[in-house]
């Protein structure tokens, strides 16, 4: 098999997959989309704060790149939040800092110039009290953006734990009716899906900070669009398709593919992940925010049910109740729209960047 230029498959560690071509490719400032025809750039319809554990599963880097290449959203902040590192996991003592490095590497490979305050750090620890916030830069950034006098809808798109949005709410409860939380996480709801055989509980993102989940679900009035495990597990893409459609897209594609393969080596070291597919479970964060319908804006191509918000205990156990406020729970994800849009945007962007090197 021919390895894409810039991809290093030899080391069992995650590195930056960049070649000298980065210096020769075009650069751009966030908010500009010169690789797209003018008729496809109509201005942002909503604001997004992308909150994810970027030191972990690299599907979040694919999601972030997809968000940044989507002109209908204005990414106001990118939050590097903590994760629960497995024993022996690299950078286990500073997953927030390592996540910031991963974001910076991606922006460098993309040739993107961003404001210094775009990337913000989340908390180093989980909540220990459902009344005491952790006053992190990320929580403050969420509060500041939510309290701005702006009419466009704000989504906090969270692909990891709920520490930052919970702390933001505890710091300033008035944000609750000024944003919508889109969360990838939580177990299956009874009557809608069954957990997969052999599943380890709690669901991973929920287990990052059970107290934060209790704040968000049990006591806050935050609007929630939840993508639980049975929905995000639908987001499978074949390795062959990821390789054929992304790995060859210059340094940008090689970097994304390389991050994926490095993660697979780490999983193989733990004795898991022998599939020929990869779960891009964070991609619904883009689908539900950037790819809404034109008339009556909504993620109309995916299916959801409205259920009473459950409660969560301090051990991440979910308890269904009848008197919870109504929340959306997604049951079917439009993977065709989501992934075809991702591949199309990645290809257009990479061709534009590569054109500078070819011209030189």
Automatic annotation (TrEMBL):
<keyword id="KW-0378">Hydrolase</keyword>
<dbReference type="InterPro" id="IPR036452">
    <property type="entry name" value="Ribo_hydro-like"/>
</dbReference>
<feature type="domain" description="Inosine/uridine-preferring nucleoside hydrolase">
    <location>
        <begin position="48"/>
        <end position="250"/>
    </location>
</feature>
<dbReference type="InterPro" id="IPR001910">
    <property type="entry name" value="Inosine/uridine_hydrolase_dom"/>
</dbReference>
<dbReference type="Pfam" id="PF01156">
    <property type="entry name" value="IU_nuc_hydro"/>
</dbReference>
<protein>
    <submittedName>
        <fullName>Inosine-uridine preferring nucleoside hydrolase</fullName>
    </submittedName>
</protein>
<dbReference type="GO" id="GO:0016799">
    <property type="term" value="F:hydrolase activity, hydrolyzing N-glycosyl compounds"/>
</dbReference>
């Amino acid at each position: 098999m021919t390895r894409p230029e810039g991809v290093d498959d030899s080391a069992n560690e995650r590195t930056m997959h960049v070649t000298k071509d980065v210096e020769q490719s075009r650069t751009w400032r966030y908010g500009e989309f010169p690789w797209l025809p003018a008729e496809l750039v109509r201005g942002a319809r909503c604001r997004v704060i992308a909150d994810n554990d970027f030191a972990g599963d690299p599907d979040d880097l694919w999601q972030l790149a997809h968000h940044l290449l989507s002109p209908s959203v204005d990414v106001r902040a990118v939050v590097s939040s903590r994760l629960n590192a497995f024993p022996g996991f690299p950078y286990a003592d500073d997953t927030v800092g390592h996540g910031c490095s991963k974001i910076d590497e991606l922006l460098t490979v993309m040739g993107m110039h961003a404001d210094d305050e775009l990337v913000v750090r989340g908390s180093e620890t989980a909540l220990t009290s459902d009344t005491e916030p952790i006053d992190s830069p990320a929580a403050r950034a969420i509060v500041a953006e939510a309290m701005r006098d702006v009419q466009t809808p704000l989504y906090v798109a969270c692909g990891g734990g709920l520490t930052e949005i919970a702390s933001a709410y505890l710091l300033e409860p008035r944000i609750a009716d000024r944003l919508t939380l889109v969360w990838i996480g939580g177990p299956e709801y009874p009557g809608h899906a069954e957990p997969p055989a052999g599943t380890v509980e709690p669901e991973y993102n929920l287990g990052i900070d059970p107290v934060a989940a209790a704040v968000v679900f049990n006591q806050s009035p935050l609007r929630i669009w939840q993508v639980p495990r049975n929905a995000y597990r639908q987001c499978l893409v074949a390795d062959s398709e990821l390789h054929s459609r992304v790995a060859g897209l210059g340094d940008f594609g090689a970097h994304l593919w390389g991050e994926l393969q490095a993660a697979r080596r780490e999983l193989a070291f733990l004795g898991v992940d022998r599939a020929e597919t990869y779960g891009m479970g964070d991609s619904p964060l883009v689908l539900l925010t950037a790819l809404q319908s034109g008339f009556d804006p909504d993620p109309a191509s995916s299916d959801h049910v409205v259920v009473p918000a459950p409660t969560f205990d301090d051990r991440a156990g979910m308890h269904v109740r009848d008197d919870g406020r109504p929340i959306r729970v997604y049951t079917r994800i439009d993977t065709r729209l989501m992934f075809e849009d991702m591949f199309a945007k990645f290809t257009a962007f990479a061709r534009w960047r590569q054109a500078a090197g070819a011209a030189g």
